[in-house]
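Dock 5,6-dihydroxy-NADP; give full complex structure.
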Amino acid sequence: MFNFDFQNPTKIVFGKDRIKELNKLIKDNARVLITYGGGSVKRFGTFDKVYNAINNGKRVIFEFGGIEPNPKYDTLMKAVDIVKKENIDFLLAVGGGSVMDGTKFINLAANYKGETPENLLYGKFNENDFSKIIPIGTVVTLPATGSEMNSGAVVSHKNGKFPVMSKHSFPKFSILEPELTYTLPKTQVANGIADTFIHTVEQYVTYPVDAKIQDRMAEGILKTLIEIADDCLTKENDYNSRANFMWSATMALNGLIGLGVPQDWATHAMGHELTYLFGIDHGKTLSILQPAIWEVRKDKKRDKLIQYAERVWEIDIENDDEKIDIAINKTREFFEKLGIKTHLSDYGIKEEQIEDIIKSLEAHHINNISETHDLTIDIMREILKKAY
Ligand code: NZQ
Ligand code: ZN
């Protein structure tokens, strides 16, 4: 196991009927900006619940809606103006990964001392570049990204999608009410399960470093997802499957399973290009790429793919090569059963457009990635052809 430090400051408030506790979680006289997406939280009553919970007559409450999936820099900068003008001192994100990520970015951008907040997108900042940091709370409506308990955000701007990592971005608290997920369309449930699955394997299907706890936790998340997926998709308002789904998503990307182990993230780096170029949902981009990446990188990941096959899919046969192939096929079938198509051609992309993806990867200097830093552009081309 590699050396590691671990600190995660986010308080989790999980379970039924927890929104009303917002009143205790935010200071009495705060100037709060509630951020949300394209309107689902208004349509399904979550916004009102949140508003009523915090409206104590002493707080001043503002709202900013319209944060789109794959949140755009220009949209978020409009919220930055409100934060500055109204002296906001608490940010409350109500939504999925896009709203949570967007809100983290609003916070950083509003308090960034450098020339332009665009620098944040390109990693041109350090943790001391902020005049102050506003506390953030979240109310999660879509389990997927783990944003509710991590320090990452992904923002779209001009010619790409950019990860913005900062220790200042951990939420102070996150409310996880599984019942809020009942209104999700099936396709978003599928996206969330796939995203959670792939966050887990990005930190697990690499090479062994004898990190037994992290491995067993990762396997636990994967087996849980396989067990609950069907209930999440087919049983209406099924609390237990949604509760397990929600906690899996948080646990997959709150730092724990990635401690002291190699991490890949090639699927995500390449997936962001597919969202940027073709507008494919994040979870779907990953499901297209993951089986192809494993097919091409079998030798690099051999030991962990065997472990994955044996422990997650319980494949009990002699031949290791076959074991790996069956595990990869089962993974692809799992995504397909979620209702996610796993080939580029399923999304109306033409084979010659693979070169556009390659150009975009090059423009974003994505090269020599993966846990072994040797996944080159040429290998990415091979992966994309396999994924076609
Ligand atoms: O915008 P509204 O109207 O609210 O509708 C949203 C949106 O259209 C809808 N939705 C959310 N909760 C709902 C609901 N509809 C009905 N009922 C509910 N309870 O779902 C749609 C998608 O929402 P979005 O927030 O975009 O999805 P997701 O949570 O998958 O987030 C995706 C974003 O997160 C980034 C992705 O790149 C992408 O930009 N990621 C962030 C990460 C992080 N912070 O660590 C890691 C991830 O790998 C990922 O990259
Ligand atoms: Zn993801």
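Observed: The mean pLDDT is 98.
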